[in-house]
Write a structure and sequence with these properties.
This protein is of the alpha/beta class and 293 residues long. It has a single domain (7-229), classed as TIM Barrel (Alpha-Beta Barrel), CATH 3.20.20.70. It is built from 12 helices and 8 strands. It has helices at 24-36, 56-70, 85-94, 115-128, 139-142, 148-157, 171-180, 195-200, 215-226, 230-248, 254-262, 279-292; strands at residues 7-11, 41-44, 76-79, 102-106, 133-137, 161-166, 186-189, 205-208. It has an 8-stranded parallel sheet. Strand 6 (161-166), helix 7 and strand 7 (186-189) form a beta-alpha-beta unit. Helix 3 (85-94) runs parallel beside helix 4 (115-128), helix 6 runs parallel beside helix 7 and helix 9 (215-226) runs antiparallel to helix 10. It is globular and about 45 Å long. The termini are far apart.
Length: 293
């Protein structure tokens, strides 16, 4: 049965120890804090998880660990993407996804496929998957944007395509998706800063980076907006603006890790080519965390 991915989801970081191994104790603390603050679902192995630096064994370890920690309390989405369609299909076969509720798959990056290539890529995934698919459009990372027309075409081509995570920042294109999508297809903001306007236009919530550090604020903002309480949602959105800006000024997930480190939850460690934020940004994030706590 397809789970409803309406509400606030979090794109989980992967915490590392100083020796660059995965910090599973830190990951457990983050997961429990998300559930305590009523996050609606978790996304593992997304961009924020530094998945490009994880080997296949580590990816399975993260999936298993999070699934066991959650123990069925909330849904889990697993990110599986590549610019090689066959690699995505092989990952779907080799990874144990028995405890996952959906797959999040990014538009193929680097290769810059045409819209037809993007469509055929996703249809190959749809045909091979036992799980529902959430599309993920993030042209700032992939180098190509999936058009509204292609998104809607995929949504209409298979009921297995249940949602899109839209991180294009293009409100005009997102509006077209909301206007033309079939009933039951969800439009999820991939940008914390665009959560409120996308929900106001009829979207279904957010897959948030900021929620790693401030889950309650993101859950409250999302649910205020979804419940139509835009006055309270706007107040909270404005209160979070400075934090949101600082969170991404030196890239993701460096900002999120700095914020969590300032609380003592994790080590401030990333795997190259990513590095921690500088001292000035760290101070801003730490100060904002104190204000928001």
């Amino acid at each position: 049965m397809t789970k409803n991915f309406r509400g606030a989801g979090v794109a989980l970081i992967t915490p590392f120890k100083n020796n660059l191994s995965i910090d599973f104790e830190g990951l457990a603390r983050i997961v429990e804090n998300q559930i305590k603050n009523q996050i609606d679902y978790l996304v593992v192995l997304g961009t924020t998880a530094e998945t490009a630096t994880l080997n296949n064994a580590e990816k399975q370890q993260v999936i298993n660990f999070v699934a066991n920690q959650v123990n069925g309390r909330i849904p889990i989405v697993v990110g599986i993407g590549s610019n090689d369609t066959q690699a995505v299909l092989e990952s779907m076969q080799s990874l144990d996804l028995s405890k996952a509720d959906a797959i999040l798959s990014v538009v193929p990056y680097y290769s810059k496929p045409t819209q037809e290539g993007i469509f055929q890529h996703y249809m190959a995934i749809v045909n091979a998957s036992k799980l529902p698919i959430i599309l993920y459009n993030v042209p700032g990372r992939t180098g190509v944007s999936m058009s509204a027309e292609t998104t809607v075409r995929l949504a209409k081509a298979s009921t297995k395509v249940i949602a899109t995570k839209e991180a294009s920042g293009n409100i005009a294109e997102i509006t077209k998706i909301l206007r033309d999508k079939p009933a039951g297809f969800s439009v999820i903001s991939g940008d914390d800063s665009l959560l409120l306007p996308i929900v106001a236009l009829g979207g279904d919530g957010v897959i948030s980076v900021a929620a790693n550090a401030i889950p309650k604020s993101i859950v409250d903002l999302t649910h205020f907006a979804l419940d139509g309480d835009f006055k309270e949602a706007a107040k909270l959105h404005l209160r979070l603006q400075s934090f949101s800006e600082a969170l991404f000024v030196e890239g993701n997930p460096a900002g999120a890790k700095a914020a969590l480190h300032s609380k003592g939850d994790i080590e401030n460690v990333l795997r190259l080519p990513l590095v921690p934020v500088g001292a000035a940004t760290y101070k801003i994030l730490a100060d904002e965390m104190r204000l928001l706590s």
